[in-house]
Amino acid sequence: MDTSDGMKIGTKCVHSGIKEYEFGPVVPPIYQTSTFKFKDADHGARLFRGEEFGYIYTRMGNPTIEAMEDAVAELEQGAKAIGCASGMAAVNLVFLALTSQGDHVICSNTVYGPTTSYLSQLLSRFRVETTFVDTSNLDEVESSFRSNTKVVFFETPGNPTLSVTDIQKISEMAHSRGAKVVVDNTFMSPILQQPLVLGADIVVHSMTKFLNGHADVVTGIVVLKTLEEYQQFRKISNLVGGVIDPFNAFLVHRGIKTLEIRMQKHCENALAIAKYLERHPKVERVWYPFLPSHPHNELSKKQTKGGGGIISFELKGGLESCKMVMNNVRVWQLAVSLGGVESLIQHPASMTHSSMSKELRLQAGITDGLVRLSVGIEDVDDLIWGLEQGLKFA
Ligand SMILES: *Cc1c(COP(=O)(O)O)cnc(C)c1O
């Protein structure tokens, strides 16, 4: 039993998943081994028959990996989790486990670009069809269900205009039709939002972002609500591979210890910067869920504990202004990805969302004048000063 049972989430971040190990280390050792010795022939046979728990081979389970998986499962209030090689490997595992030929998926039209392409270009080859809708609009979701709909998949807040989807309402709607709800909780982390508690069935993360938080690994995870589902997913994970390795699991687990204080700082900094931008004469509009001007502010405050670290804003001067800002900011680094301790700036239309058609981009609110920020944990005065150095040229 973890020392964090029954404790508050900040304590869980520090203690979850950690077991007793030989020599009594405070931190789980990195079991950098591909395989594990059996005590004797019967022991090996019992492990393979599933009659006794024990590690066999690292693709199927490893103590360093399991410690991290248990920490994330506990923070999300799930039963068990499966660490994956990347966020996209986690997305792939979910769809391979939940869909078969002839099934239908409903997916938000603001999910991560490669998730959209995975569904529309890859899963479609196996005759699994996806309808992309604005999941913040419940009527649109409702009218998209078919008798063969198996999964509703979304991110909330969505990327990059941070539209918010009602997890509880969509879960009720999906369950009454026999479909499962999968939430990509990357933008919020379990500190700000716990989809399983709100009724969702499965959570996925790109742990590359906030969970690890230090921009030094690419990893993902799938969190399951029940042990039965976990066992079903684990069998598939054993077949597809794409699992996390022990060293990356160790790094993510280390990152999780500071997750609560990092998220608090991301939220505090982002809200202050969103307010500064909203007052700025060169800025047309700001998208941040905890600003009263955001169209989903009320739902966001009900469903989440904070607005998170991501802000998008539109410059009055369009593309040319965006370039001037990106090329002249200080402190902020011009790079994609998000959720690390360092602040990043990027331009969705020409970078993260450049593979979308212009029409679809505009439908999703991604104009040429839109800039996305991932707000880090630096001092907010320096971050505002650094942005102003770019905005002077906008
Ligand atoms: C980055 C990201 C992913 C993909 O994760 P990788 O670790 O890069 O494979 C999926 N969903 C969201 C919301 C992301 O931001």
Describe the protein:
The protein has 2 domains: 9-256, 3-Layer(aba) Sandwich (Aspartate Aminotransferase, domain 2); 259-391, Aspartate Aminotransferase, domain 1, CATH 3.90.1150. The chain has a 7-stranded mixed sheet with strand order 1-7-6-5-4-2-3, with helices on both faces. Strands 8-9-12-11-10 form a 5-stranded mixed sheet. Helices cover 38% and strands 15% of the residues. By secondary structure, it is an alpha/beta fold. α4 crosses α9 (227-240). The model has no long low-confidence stretch (mean pLDDT 96). It is built from 15 helices and 12 strands. Pyridoxal-5'-phosphate (PLP) binds at residues 86-88, 112, 155, 184, 186-187, 206, 208-209, 218, 220.
Q: Give the strand line-up of the largest sheet.
A: 1-7-6-5-4-2-3
Q: H/E order of the elements? A: HHHEHEHEHEHEHEEHHHEHEHEEHEH
Helicity level: 25-40%
For CATH, the homologous superfamily of the largest domain is named as Type I PLP-dependent aspartate aminotransferase-like (Major domain)
State the domain count. 2
* Largest sheet: number of strands, sense, barrel closure: 7 strands, mixed
- Supply the CATH architecture of the largest domain: 3-Layer(aba) Sandwich
Q: Rg from C-alpha positions?
A: 21 Å
Assembly context of the chains: single chain
Low-confidence stretches: none
Top-tier CATH class of the largest domain: Alpha Beta
- Strand residue percentage: 5-15%
Class inferred from helices and paired strands: alpha/beta
Associated small molecules: pyridoxal-5'-phosphate
Instruction: Report mean pLDDT, rounded to a whole number.
Output: 96
Query: Span between N and C termini?
Result: 56 Å
Per the CATH scheme, the topology name of the largest domain is Aspartate Aminotransferase, domain 2
